[in-house]
Amino acid sequence: MKRIYLLSALIIFLSTNVFAQDVEDLPRPQTSAPVASDAIQQGNWIVGASIANVGHNFKSKTFSLDLTPRAGYFISDNAVIGAQAQLGLSIYSGGESFRYGVTPFVRYYFPEGASPTGRFFGEAIVGIAGSSEEDSDGDSVFSRVYGVSGGYAYFVARNVALEGMLNLVRSNANVDFGGSATGLSISLGLQIYLPAGN
């Protein structure tokens, strides 16, 4: 009987030791990629989108969401020119308003403070935007919009980065304010960096 217990204990010990060895040898999930400098080279492309101003105001029963899809081209290492669409929606008690626009942008990734998996960047936009409000004659069809942003791109894969941005934007096309308005917002985005074709 002692031999059966001893043999069982030995089998259990060896099987858990082998299993533990297999688990240790498994590849770990990737949480970052040391390729930030490769992704921001001349000739590469950037495509993606940012989401900002997602929120619900309980007092006024207003839901708002802004989405900014974009595409750009690296004219040199660290420097991008491109264009983005500005799309926004506010739904409130009694109606809704829609915001739209096209804004060219320039972005520069700073070599200072760079790490293998991330880069700080600055961005400027200038373009046109408009808004429409349900059952309103005061819509601004098109007006100017301009702003500056600062952010950080964290590379989670070879050509994919998560971005956080702080934006300061001035627009004359917001029906909510009846004139020009300057706003500060935080946005989160996902950008894909496409290498230049060889």
UniProtKB/TrEMBL annotation:
Protein name (record): Outer membrane protein beta-barrel domain-containing protein
Annotated signal peptide: 1-20
Record keywords, A-Z: Signal
Protein origin, superkingdom: Bacteria
